[in-house]
Amino acid sequence: MKSFLLFIALHISFLGYSQTTLVSWNMENFGKSKSAYCIDFMANTLKEFDIIAVVEVVAGPGGAQAVAKLTDELNRKGSKWDYRISDPTFSSAFKTERYAFIWKTSKVKLKGKPWLEQKYKLEIEREPYFATFEIDGKTITIGAFHAITKNKKPENEIKYFSYFPLEYPKLNFIFAGDFNCPQSNLSFDGLKKMGYSPILINQKTSLKQKCVVNDCLASEFDNMFYSTSKIKVRQKGVISFYKSFSTLKEAKTISDHLPIWMEFSLQ
Questions:
Q1: Average pLDDT, stretch 63-81?
Q2: At what angle do helices 36-46 and 2-14 cross, to 10 degrees?
Q3: Confidence class for position 1, pLDDT limits 50, 70, 90
């Protein structure tokens, strides 16, 4: 495990030091069920990034406590971190959740108050959570999102994301999270026609129930979409944390999704 985490740290530190790194992770029912070991493992996995978008935080008090514990653990790793956590999502009849943002205060500055977007709360079950950050005098607005499950047709929600750049023309968006849908789905065409691009293509990000001939990944669900005219992506990828464990069952005590990340600069 130590060698894997060292690899991640060296890989991220190799990236351009003047750039910003963003990681999004569906932490799967992130709350009181996560042990101190899980929290420490997550902190070691994420500590080299600048901004963390957390998806699937438990709506009850255990979720907020887990985010606070993760931030506290990150603060023990050598940098100062701050965080904000959303209220429970409003409109879900399926499963209400929270989101969170955690960031290095030396690298980025929060601008204003993050918000759960209410404009399409009747059309989107777990409305996205937006936060604006200032980076070297420029701003970026990150939207964390967890779509409804595949059998409930998440594409019916995703199509509304092309409306947000029109609703907020002054904001420079990155949409990040678990879309429960591959980027090739037609529901992303609206965003793509507006100049938004996914960071990952044909990259599976969720874990199977069991590995089959060393193939342990199931579906292409997690991604980030960014404006190619406003953002330059330098590097991107996934963190295959499950390789630190002997079995997928052990790995899934952490999460059933891989963290996805990108290094970017603002144009």
A1: 97
A2: 30
A3: low
Q: Which two tokens stand for residue 47?
A: 């500590």
Is 185's pLDDT higher than 50? yes
The H helix count followed by the E strand count for the chain is 7, 14
Nearest to 220 by CA among 241, 207, 206: 206
What pLDDT is recorded for position 8? 52
Q: Convert the pLDDT of each residue in 18-30 to its tens digit.
A: 699 999 999 999 9
What angle separates helix 36-46 from helix 61-75, to the nearest 10 degrees?
A: 50
Q: What are phi and psi of 60, to 5 degrees?
A: -70, 180
Of 233, 157, 250, 170, the C-alpha closest to 198 is 233
At position 73, the amino acid (one-letter code) is E
Q: What contacts 215, CB < 8 A, 6 or more positions away? A: 208
Question: How far is residue 262's CA from residue 16's CA, in Å, rounded to a whole number?
Answer: 12
Distance in angstroms (rounded) separating the CA atoms of residues 95 and 97: 6
Encoding tokens for residue 29?
A: 């029912």
Going from the C-alpha of 36 to that of each of 72, 109, 158, 244, the distances in angstroms are 12, 28, 35, 17
Alpha helices in 22-149 (DSSP H): 36-46, 61-75
Answer whether 0.85 is exceeded by the pTM.
Answer: yes
